[in-house]
Amino acid sequence: MMTLLESILLHEGFNAKPYKDTKGILTFGHGLTYITEDESICIVINRLRERGKQLEPYISKLSINKQEVLIEMSFQLGINGLMNFKRMWKAIKREDWFSARNEMLDSQWAKHDSPGRALEMADKFLLG
User: Fold this and answer.
1) Is 39 domain-assigned?
2) pLDDT by residue for the chain (128 residues), tens digit each?
3) What DSSP string describes 34-85?
4) What is the pTM of this model?
5) What range does the domain containing 104 cover?
C-alpha cells in the first residue's frame, strides 16, 4: 500500500514550470498553486547546498566570502552562466582578486542585468 505522500506524488505528477490545470488554475510542482515564504526559503537553502557541491572543485580553497559570492552568482546566473566568466576564473586561478572583481564587473550581468547586485557582490569578493 502506498503512503499518502507516494499517492499524492503519483497522482499529481510533477511539472517544474507553471501550467494551467484542468480548471485553468496556475499550478506547478506536484499540484501546488502557491508556496509560503518559509517553503521558498527551504528551496533556496537546498539549491545553495546543491550549487556549493557542484562548485566545490573550483572554490574549495577560496575564502568563505569568495565562495559565497560565486555560489550566489551561480544561483542567479546558473552554473553555465557562472562558468562563462572565463577571464574571472583565470584571475581567480592566479589569485589576482582585483582582476577577478573587475572581470565580474565587465559583464552583461553587471552592466545591464543586475548592476547594484553585481557591484555589491564584486566588492564582497575583495573583502576576504
Assistant:
1) no
2) 889 999 999 999 999 999 999 999 999 999 999 999 999 999 999 999 999 999 999 999 999 999 999 999 999 999 999 999 999 999 999 999 999 999 999 999 999 999 999 999 999 999 97
3) ---HHHHHHHHHHHHHHHHHHHHHHHTTS-HHHHHHHHHHHHHHHHHHHHT-
4) 0.89
5) 47-126
